[in-house]
Structure formats: structure tokens, C-alpha cells
Amino acid sequence: MNKVILSLIVIASIGFTSCKNEDKQKTETATTEVSKETATADISFGVRGNCGMCKSTIEKAANSVEGVANATWDVDKKKIDIFFDDSKTDAMEIHNAIAASGYDTEKVEGSEDAYKSLPECCKYEHNMVMNQ
To answer: What domains sit in the chain, N to C, each tagged with a CATH number?
Structure first.
């Protein structure tokens, strides 16, 4: 009988040690999704000018403003379309940058000094119709 009890104790001991619940390190991977939302605005307004050289200068002036993603001036319509981040700039800052390069916009008259230094083909009539 002692052998039976001893055998049961040994078997129970082996069973308990083999079923021991060891704390396994759990590795959790956290995935963080970063959402970069940008406040954007799309505006159009009139800008006076004549030719392809004007187009280049006007677009360069608008694109030089921090926050402007894209600026496209239409030579025939005398209109610029601008896509920009309105948390970094605003429409008036863009108007002022274009005016500083010598071109009139709907809200700001171009710099006279900059206008005088424009090539002859870029010297537009100050009463020219814009945003057609």
C-alpha cells in the first residue's frame, strides 16, 4: 500500500510540475496610425499680366509663400488658381507677394518699382480686365 501511495504522490508531483503555469512574457505590438491632416484652401482671383514671362513671375511669387502647394496663372483669363495650407498663410499674404513682384491683383496694387523693372512685354495696362 505504501508503494501505491508513493506512486500516486510521484505521479501527482510530475503532473503538477509539468502543468505549472509559467508566466510567459507577452509581447504586444502597438500600431499607431498617424494622421496628418492639413487645413487647405483653394482660391482664385484676378492678376494683371500679358505673357508667358508674366506667368512664370506671378506663379513664382505665389509659390514662394510658405504654405502654397500649387499656383497656376491663366494668361488668357488673367486669373490665378491657388491651393494652399491656410494654417500657414492666408489669401492676403499671397496677394501681397504677387503685388511685390510688380503685378496688380484684385485686392492689392503692384509695386511701382517692381513694375518698372519688368520686361517691356510684361508691362500691362493698369485698367486691364482681370478674372475673366
So the answer is: 43-122 (3.30.70.100)
